């Protein structure tokens, strides 16, 4: 995968205190976490338990405390259930040593001072109390032990357990382990009576005290983004009055950078004008002509970046992005987004920043590359490709595909799979099961190594010193099973053979691994897609993200935009960064009156029906128009819907507009619509509009919600309250390129009537040629006879 380039940045830094521990924090913890909420506060239902997570931290906070002084006042207590931590269903602990658990993490600017676990559980009446118990384990250490007396067996129980805060680190794993026995004689280690159930309504309660962090650039992106805090990032951006287009371009680069860091968590950026937030952290953009009120700005000597306290909140920080003019401000933003690791001190001046090489299509760091096969080792950590035990976790490989891959008549995306496993002692039912996004794909039997006088085992040991069996397989992933964000899941299932009474001994020495040199290859698939298709915009930001830096994208704001317009723009840029993993350093921002200058770019148009004149100028091309309380919709006829099967798979989306309908209502509606640019053929327009400013923010909330964004499809999306409707009409332009012969075949496959006519025409032409040829030969014979 493409890496963010290292830039030649020369810095002039002012000295400041440095933290000895919190300088660089390893790879991003990605899955199965949920945001913690204050105790007693109502917790909203999470859309996906693997996307939002608890955040709290101890050792990192302790290190910060050692570097900067005593903890600050303002301790809070947070409670989070196992379900919020990712346990969609209760834990079923089975066997003599069953174990399962959940992860959680702690913010860098907080320290845990107290912890309790409210455990809700049930256990088998067959367990022998003297030999059985349930261990609460935190990061591999036993934090508490729960007895299993006969008197309460088989009933729902609740027990509060105190946990030592010293056991809590920055990233944590809370496990529940059943040590179970049902007899003192020979026992089956997988006997059905060995079970305990841990309810996912069990609650982890933490008392957190804030800790001051230093004003230090080397901590970036802390405290503005903390990878431990896996809830949605909410970060205000502060401007002085109406920011210039260049200032907005710099802000778009910064918001996309934070969006890329936030990743699966999502990120929203509210814009405030001339006002610093009363609490928390914020990013402030400053030039000599644009200085927000209430911010003490140092002397600006060039492109500069600094971290200062929030004057309105002792616990908050401000990230100042500064320049003497807009050009220097953009340089400072680029230095922050592309070279943050090189920054240090309380403030830094960028003396020189060389240009990076232009991006090429489909080279986004988060996307599977289209110019070469991609190794699994580039998509996930090597340690996550290895599992052990008879009941191992899934091996998960996450990947993101370019959304315009054209898989018509192809076998799919080829995967050269290499894996290893501990060979089975005899032939059994052990398999490697392969799923794609929880859909079964195929299974491979795990072979055995038969032992004849030990000779086979000795030969295996010489050839394979680690005792594992390497296997190579080729798999074709059907493209229809693969949304933009997909996950390959590999499950090593080991069959357990019963040997009989007093012979069943569990030797948990089996291992499995997916080789990091396994590859996925999309190089053979062309890029070609029918637009408008708002699904690819909602999931991947396409077509704007075709170039990772958005250098062929222009954002068109009203000539007099408001705070909601700025917030919508910044949040959408964060969404683009989440898709590509690269800052939008090439995006252009323009007013509606200057749109003609951006004719050769794809256009992202933002505004209300009242403030954005382009919605009136392009009304005939748009499937919807919102003016005050009046809404106008384009409708199709019923006959074309019924006959869509004849026109092929896209027929129901290509039907023409038959009539228009206007309705009046006082509700606040927001729409997302896509259509071909009126300024240039083959260029796209995506319009975000509403009949009220607050409706724009409702649309960005939909795009950030993992469940709601699945409803974003077609050429028009309507949002009114909690209802989301998608419509499709006038899908009549294509982006990308096919080989000529492939294009002809595809074009004819969608138009069977045209193919019949072409075959008929070809037949008539061939018949006419044969007729004329035969007539000519007949004339020649007659001439020969007369001669």
TrEMBL record:
Note the topology in the membrane.
Single-pass membrane protein
Query: Chief location of this protein?
Result: membrane
Keyword presence, tRNA processing: no
Signal sequence span per UniProt? 1-41
Q: Which InterPro entries match?
A: Cell_synth_B, Cell_synthase_bac
Q: What are the alphabetically sorted keywords of the record? A: c-di-GMP, Cell inner membrane, Cell membrane, Cellulose biosynthesis, Membrane, Signal, Transmembrane, Transmembrane helix
Subcellular localization, as worded in the UniProt entry: Cell inner membrane
Recorded metabolic or biological pathway in which this protein acts: Glycan metabolism; bacterial cellulose biosynthesis
> Which branch of life, at top level?
Bacteria
Q: Which residues cross the membrane?
A: 753-774
Q: Which NCBIfam families does the UniProt record give?
A: PRK11114.1-1, PRK11114.2-4
Q: Give the record's family classification.
A: Belongs to the AcsB/BcsB family.
- PANTHER family, alphabetically? CYCLIC DI-GMP-BINDING PROTEIN
Subunit description = Tightly associated with the cellulose synthase catalytic subunit.
Q: What does this protein do?
A: Binds the cellulose synthase activator, bis-(3'-5') cyclic diguanylic acid (c-di-GMP).
Protein name as catalogued: Cyclic di-GMP-binding protein
* Source organism of this protein record: Cupriavidus basilensis
Upper lineage is: Bacteria, Pseudomonadati, Pseudomonadota, Betaproteobacteria, Burkholderiales
Q: Which gene encodes it?
A: bcsB
């Amino acid at each position: 995968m493409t890496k963010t380039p290292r830039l030649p940045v020369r810095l002039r830094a002012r000295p400041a205190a440095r933290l000895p521990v919190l300088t660089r924090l390893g790879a991003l913890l990605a899955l199965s976490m949920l945001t913690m909420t204050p105790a007693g506060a109502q917790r909203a239902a999470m859309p996906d338990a693997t996307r939002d997570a608890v955040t709290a931290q101890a050792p990192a906070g302790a290190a910060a405390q050692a570097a900067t002084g005593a903890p600050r006042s303002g301790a809070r207590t947070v409670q989070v259930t196992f379900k919020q931590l990712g346990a969609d269903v209760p834990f079923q602990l089975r066997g003599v040593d069953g174990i399962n658990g959940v992860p959680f993490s702690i913010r860098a600017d907080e320290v845990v001072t107290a912890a309790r676990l409210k455990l809700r559980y049930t256990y088998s009446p067959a367990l022998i109390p003297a030999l059985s118990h349930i261990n609460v384990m935190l990061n591999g250490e036993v934090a508490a032990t729960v007895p299993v007396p006969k008197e309460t067996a088989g009933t729902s129980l609740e027990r509060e357990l105190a946990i030592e805060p010293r056991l809590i680190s920055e990233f944590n794993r809370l496990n529940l382990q059943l040590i179970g026995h049902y007899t003192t004689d020979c026992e089956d280690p997988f006997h059905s009576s060995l079970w305990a159930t841990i309810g996912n309504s069990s609650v982890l309660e933490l008392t957190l005290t804030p800790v001051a962090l230093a004003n230090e650039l080397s901590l970036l992106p802390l405290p503005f983004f903390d990878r431990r805090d896996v809830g949605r990032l909410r970060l205000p951006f502060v401007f002085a009055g109406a920011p210039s287009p260049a200032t907005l371009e710099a802000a778009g680069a910064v918001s996309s950078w934070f969006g890329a860091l936030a990743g699966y968590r999502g990120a929203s950026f509210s814009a405030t004008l001339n006002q610093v937030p009363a609490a928390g952290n914020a990013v402030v953009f400053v030039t000599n002509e644009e200085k927000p009120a209430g911010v003490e700005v140092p002397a600006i000597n060039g492109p500069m970046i600094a971290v200062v306290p929030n004057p309105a909140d002792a616990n908050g920080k401000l990230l100042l992005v500064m320049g003497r003019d807009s050009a220097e401000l953009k340089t400072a933003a680029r230095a922050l987004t592309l070279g943050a690791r090189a920054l240090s001190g309380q403030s830094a001046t960028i003396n020189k920043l060389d240009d990076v090489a232009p991006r090429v299509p489909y080279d986004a760091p988060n996307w599977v590359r289209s110019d070469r096969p991609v190794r699994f080792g580039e998509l996930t950590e090597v340690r996550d490709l290895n599992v052990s035990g008879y009941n191992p976790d899934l091996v998960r490989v996450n990947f993101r595909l370019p959304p315009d891959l054209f898989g018509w008549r192809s076998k799919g995306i080829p995967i050269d799979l290499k894996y290893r496993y501990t060979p089975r002692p005899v032939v059994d039912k052990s398999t490697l099961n392969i799923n794609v996004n929880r859909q079964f794909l195929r299974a491979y039997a795990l072979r055995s190594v038969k032992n004849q006088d030990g000779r086979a085992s000795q030969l295996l040991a010489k050839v394979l010193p680690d005792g594992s069996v390497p296997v190579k397989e080729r798999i074709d992933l059907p493209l229809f099973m693969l949304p933009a964000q997909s996950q390959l899941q590999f499950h090593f299932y080991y069959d357990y053979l019963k040997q009989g009474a007093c012979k069943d001994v569990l030797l948990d020495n089996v291992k499995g691994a997916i080789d990091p040199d396994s590859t996925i290859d999309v190089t053979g698939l062309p890029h070609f897609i029918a637009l408008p298709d708002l699904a690819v915009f909602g999931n991947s930001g396409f077509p704007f993200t075709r170039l990772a830096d958005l250098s062929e994208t222009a954002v068109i704001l009203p000539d007099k935009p408001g705070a909601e317009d700025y917030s919508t723009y910044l949040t959408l840029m964060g969404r683009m960064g989440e898709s590509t993993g690269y800052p939008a350093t090439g995006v252009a921002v323009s007013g509606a009156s200057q749109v003609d200058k951006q004719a050769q770019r794809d256009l992202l148009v933002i505004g209300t029906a009242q403030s954005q004149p382009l919605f009136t100028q392009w009304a005939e091309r748009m499937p919807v128009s919102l003016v005050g309380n009046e809404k106008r919709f384009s409708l199709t006829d019923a006959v074309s819907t019924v006959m869509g099967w004849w026109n092929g798979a896209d027929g129901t989306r290509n039907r023409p507009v038959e009539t228009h309908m206007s309705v009046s209502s006082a509700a606040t509606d927001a729409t997302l619509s896509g259509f071909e640019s009126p300024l240039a053929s083959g260029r796209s327009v995506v319009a975000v509009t509403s009949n009220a400013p607050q409706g724009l923010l409702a649309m960005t909330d939909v795009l950030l919600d993992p469940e709601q964004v699945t409803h974003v499809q077609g050429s028009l999306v309507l949002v009114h309250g909690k209802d989301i409707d998608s419509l499709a009409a006038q899908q009549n332009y294509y982006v990308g390129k096919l080989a000529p012969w492939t294009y002809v075949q595809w074009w004819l496959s969608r138009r069977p009537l045209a193919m019949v006519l072409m075959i008929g025409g070809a037949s008539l032409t061939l018949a006419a040629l044969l007729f004329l040829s035969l007539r000519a030969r007949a004339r020649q014979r007659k001439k020969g006879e007369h001669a």
